[in-house]
Amino acid sequence: MTVLARPRRPWDRTPAGEREYFELLGPGLVVVLPPRRPGRSGSTEWLPPTGGGWIHVGADGHIRAFTGKAEVGQGTRTALSLVVAEELRVSLDRVALVMADTDLCPWDMGTFGSRSMPDAALTLRTTAAGAREALVGLAAERAGRPPSELEVLDGTVGVRGGSSFVPYGELVRDRNRVVVASADGPLTPPTRWTRAGHPAIDPEARDVVTGGRVYVSDLRRPGMLFGAVLRPPRYGSHLVDAELDAARRRPGTTVVREEGFVGVAASTPAGAKAALADVRARWRDDPQPTGREVEAYLRTHPRKEDDWDMDERIVGDVEAALVAAPVRLEATYRTAYIAHVPLETRCAVAEWEGTRVTIWVGTQTPFPARDEVAEALNLPVEAVRIIVPPTGSGFGGKHGGEVAIEAARLARAAGRPVRVGFSREEEFRFGHFRPMSIVDVRAGAEKDGRLTAWSFHNINGGAAAMSPPYRIPHQRVDNALSTSPLPQGPYRSLAAAANNFARESAIDEIAHRVGVDPLVYRERILDDERLTAVLRRAAERAHWSDRGRRPGKGFGLAVGLEKGSRVATVAEVTVAGDRRLSVDRLSVAFEAGAIVNPDNLRSQVEGAVVMGLGGALFEAIRFDRGIVENPRLSEYRVPRFSDLPQVNVELLDRPDLPPAGAGETPLIAVAPALANAIFDATGVRLRSLPLVPDGIVPEVPAG
Q1: Is 526 a member of any domain?
Q2: What is the DSSP-derived secondary structure letter of residue 121?
Q3: pLDDT class of 4 with cuts at 50, 70, 90
Q4: Which of these three, 195, 210, 225, is where a domain ends?
Q5: What single-letter DSSP state applies at residue 386?
Q6: Which whole-number Å values give the CA distances from 669 to 157, 455, 672, in the listed order?
Q7: Among candidates 667, 514, 548, which has minimal Cα distance to 604?
Q8: What pTM was computed for the model?
Q9: Which of 183, 212, 480, 566 pairs with 557 at a CA distance of 20 to 30 A?
């Protein structure tokens, strides 16, 4: 893993004219795009601010582009490199993308919310387009011709129709020029893409499958020690006292206690573990609910709403419309706390040079993590460098800098680099979970199925994808946040999975009550043309109109929209005589605007579908009074190869639209499609996730 030299100050905190671009990167051309301001898109979606962008074109003709986004296995490195290659008219192998290095990269809020393509891709496209225009300008000066007479071909610039073209490297040799790009520069429309929009293989793909890729967990620094941290026995425990003398007597062991932190560092992982076992700690425990009490607890323990997660919409007179409706539904839908289960657990390596620390850590939020480390260790922000190497997935579970702080504390005390890595059990016990959701739905419809009233109240889950995409004259949607007994936070798709499960299950229930085919019913009431298009494509792929009917065979469908993209999923299931469920096929249609890399997008969709399968069928955290009872993969059920159905993915390319997020939305239609298919097969309506934790469809649903 190549790490560029450290600048005097982080570039995101240094004026463009004072950055050591050419000292660190070599001679050439640097094009800088000023930061964009935060704003809103539509009425609910927050556009995170970006720290602008910069691209270096070297004298060797190679391009270095910089982004604050992190690569956590989603293929962002290749996709973002593709849009740079497209605007600069070069092959993919000539673009090197420097990612998530807080000393060198533009400030970024974090890699979450499917914002890499809408935000970082747009920034990089615009910066690369500015670089292309600057290179044309240099060539025009050299040729004594107006820029309008020149064109760019395969990393060279020359007179349109001529035979002599000058390579980029020759144009920028010995220049050391910084150019400011315009935010309104001429972007190449997706309809004219020749590099982006076509299948591309990650240049490092071979390293991935041969074990050559270096993840955070693989890093070793000279003289490195291994750290272990004292963890509470349960949620709600507070450290009262810790006896450290026995651990300190161990040769070669560093023991640290700072405020509520207790940790040790030793030359081997086993030595660190043994030293930690010598620590005698006393704890004070707050009362915690049991698993059986959690729903009542969440309903009765509200917390002050956070502005970012507030969403309330009221249209018309919902209560009057409900009273007048001849067809009514009142139901509650629930989703469990579930874990992220990344392939690579949390890990960080910290190394000090004087009063400055460099931390290699698998985090989705490197710049906020930098701030957290600086605050925790009472350092200026400029003294902290966060580097995110390739990371073995996050799914929203690797926000923040907690493990980075732990490694930095121990490394400062030991005077040597220290690695802190979570065990699998620590990952389960001391990470955070997808929030449990309780969704109360009341709906009213005419006898012909026209929806007239909709009341949708989410408790604890959040606001994502809460507004219905259907024509409903009277509606109220809102969410109430709770004080959770378990730590909860971001998870792939956020609250959209819970809200979509509740809404699409309820829509299916109404369709059956009014006697209308679920596909036809949605087509009648949908108020989104893009969503209608994916619904029809998924139904065609699944042969919905001529699906076979036999005992125990069921078909269900669901749609969803979130992060600017659209999805529809058709599930086919079989419930055997012993009530064991088999998922036979999932047909998915997905649209996320212009497609940058079709192969990677398909992989993203397939991965999200498999992840959605686990949360839909059997994933759930079991806990009692603050203790997680299934903190191991032998006890926490995730999808296995034997669980996987045939998955058919149809991608709808919309080059007339900008690229949208694709990592989360494909997940949100899986659970309701499966629940609706189970109902179709058995007549049993399951309203709680996981649907079949033991693989068996109940005769009558619990609760």
Answers
A1: yes
A2: I
A3: confident
A4: 210
A5: E
A6: 48, 20, 6
A7: 667
A8: 0.94
A9: 480
- Asked whether residue 27 is assigned to any structural domain, the reply reads yes
Residue 541: count other Cβ atoms within 10 Å of its Cβ. Answer: 17
Please, where are the H alpha helices in 15-155?
21-25, 76-88, 122-143
On whether both 201 and 324 belong to a single domain, the answer is no
Whether residues 589 and 544 fall in one domain: yes
Q: What is the pLDDT of residue 485?
A: 95
- Whether 4 maps to a domain, the answer reads no
Domain identity same for 81 and 229: no
pLDDT digits (tens, 9 = 90+) for 342-361: 999 999 999 999 999 999 99
Peptide bond into 203 cis (omega under 30): no
What phi-psi label fits residue 2: left (phi over 0), alpha (psi between -120 and 50 degrees) or beta? beta
548: helix, strand or coil: coil
Provide the token pair at 310.
Answer: 């507030």
Is the pLDDT at 538 greater than 50? The verdict is yes
Phi and psi at residue 451, to the nearest 5° = -70, 135
Same domain membership, residue 385 and residue 323: no
**Closest-CA residue to 10 (of 141, 78, 114, 106):** 106
Q: Helix, strand, coil proportions of the chain in percent (round to 5)?
A: 30, 25, 40
Contact 649, 595 (CB under 8 A): no
| pLDDT digits 0-9 by tens, 129-154 | 999 999 999 999 999 999 999 999 99
SS (H, E, C) 184-212: CCCCCCHHHCCCCCCCCCCCCHHHHHHCC
The owner of tokens 């036809």 is 520
Do 178 and 267 lie in one domain? The reply is no
Say which CATH number the domain at 386 has: 3.30.365.10
Is residue 96 included in any domain, yes or no?
yes
Question: Which tens digits make up the pLDDT trace of 37-48?
Answer: 544 444 333 344
Q: Domain count of the chain? A: 3
- Given the DSSP bridges, would you call strands 261-266 and 225-229 parallel, antiparallel or unpaired? antiparallel
Q: Which of 470, 478, 428 has its CA nearest to residue 453?
A: 470
